[in-house]
Specification:
The chain is mainly β. The chain has one helix at 13-20, and strands spanning 25-29, 35-36, 51-68, 80-89, 97-102, 115-121, 124-129.
């Protein structure tokens, strides 16, 4: 069985278009400047409906993780890590978080606070070992 495709709608299409090009784009409110993820039609800070995007730099920090042993989806070999990372975003001190999988790092080597880099694979975003600029 293949991995299911993400559900794409008008509020998140920009995100998946960015991922397809090797970028993670985060919503940025044009009224108050706050960043938000996951995507939503309205800013939770000021309730504005106007937004643009800000690009993640490709660098991240591991905030949290869990190791999934079972039940395993048919497209995943286990055990596998589901991780929560704090993204570095261009021209911002905010660090929005995304949930993703890990690539290129053994589960036993994951450490809270470790620097990571974004990895793009099969139309999805993952986090892997830090890549020096």
């Amino acid at each position: 069985m293949n991995r299911p495709l993400p559900v794409i709608g008008r509020d998140n299409a920009y995100y998946w278009e960015g991922v397809a090009k090797g970028d993670v784009l985060i919503q940025k409110c044009t009224a108050c400047g706050s960043l938000r993820h996951p995507p939503s039609p309205m800013c939770p800070e000021c309730q504005s409906l106007d937004w643009t995007t800000a690009k993640a730099t490709g660098r991240a920090v591991l905030h949290s993780y869990t190791i999934c042993h079972h039940p395993l989806p048919p497209w995943e070999e286990g055990p596998y890590a589901v991780i929560l990372i704090d993204l570095e975003v261009e021209d911002s001190d905010a660090r929005p978080r995304i949930v993703c999988g890990a690539r290129g790092i053994a589960n036993e080597d994951l450490r809270i606070g470790m620097p990571m880099s974004l990895v793009f694979e099969d139309g999805l975003v993952f986090a892997g070992p830090e890549v020096s600029p």
